[in-house]
């Protein structure tokens, strides 16, 4: 197995481990302040895919710019998606 194939297999294994970590952490009961930490494995997975599989490191400057813009919008969308669960309040039903 060549060095490049070995690196890709190790990246794939790291993605599987991060996915298992995120899946397991989804079942943990954590406080509201710790919930954004559940995004860390997802951010690491996105970075691994961008660096290893998309090969952004060797691309021209324009490719790097689009990759950074994509990560920015991913952060914006994840942030907007987290606003609702983090700020939701449960009100008792009056009957």
Which descriptors would you attach to this protein?
95 residues, mainly alpha
Provide structural commentary.
- This protein is an all-alpha fold.
- It has one domain (3-87).
- Helices cover 68% and strands 0% of the residues.
- It is built from three helices and no strands.
- α1 (3-26) packs antiparallel against α2 (40-53).
Topology:
Blueprint (H helix, E strand, L loop, with lengths): L2 H24 L13 H14 L7 H27 L8
Compact description:
This protein is mostly helical and 95 residues long. Helix content is 68%, strand content 0%.
Order of helices and strands: HHH
Number of separate structural domains? 1
Distance between the termini: 68 Å
As a whole number of angstroms, the C-alpha radius of gyration is 18 Å
Low-confidence stretches: none
């Amino acid at each position: 197995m060549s060095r490049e194939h070995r690196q890709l297999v190790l990246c794939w294994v790291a993605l599987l481990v991060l996915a298992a970590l995120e899946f397991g952490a989804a079942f943990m009961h954590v406080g509201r302040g710790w919930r954004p930490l559940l995004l860390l494995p997802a951010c690491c997975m996105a970075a691994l895919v961008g660096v290893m599989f998309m090969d952004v490191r060797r691309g021209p400057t324009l490719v790097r710019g689009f990759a950074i813009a994509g990560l920015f919008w991913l952060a914006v969308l994840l942030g907007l998606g987290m606003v609702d669960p983090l700020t939701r309040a449960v009100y008792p039903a009056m009957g």
